[in-house]
Amino acid sequence: MIGDGIPPNPSVLNTTVLSNFAYINQLLIVSGLSGICAVPVVRQELEHGVDDHPYLKSALDILDDEIPVATISDIVANREAVLSSHLDPGEAQAFALADAHDGRLLTDDGDAR
Fold first, then answer.
1. How much is the pTM?
2. Angle at Cα 38 formed by Cα 33 and Cα 44, nearest 5°?
3. CA-to-CA separations, 61 to 12, 45, 67, in angstroms, rounded
């Protein structure tokens, strides 16, 4: 990792990817990927959704230990601010992190694609 929980050339997960794999009880597929990470907003979105969707608890359980949650730098925050007018918060932060670290965004969100 290059610091702040960010692997080199990260594959950054958004909430929907984690949610979908949690729903089918297959988070091991995602957590086993090399260079995987998530962002703080993704954790917040999962936390807010767990009451209505209890399966999200399994996604929260693997964050930090198996999927690092990156610390957001000022550079990423600035890119996120630009993207936030076009994308939801989780996609904006994840896309900004991937862009700032020569990584990729793993998403199924139409606007982010």
1. 0.87
2. 140
3. 17, 14, 10
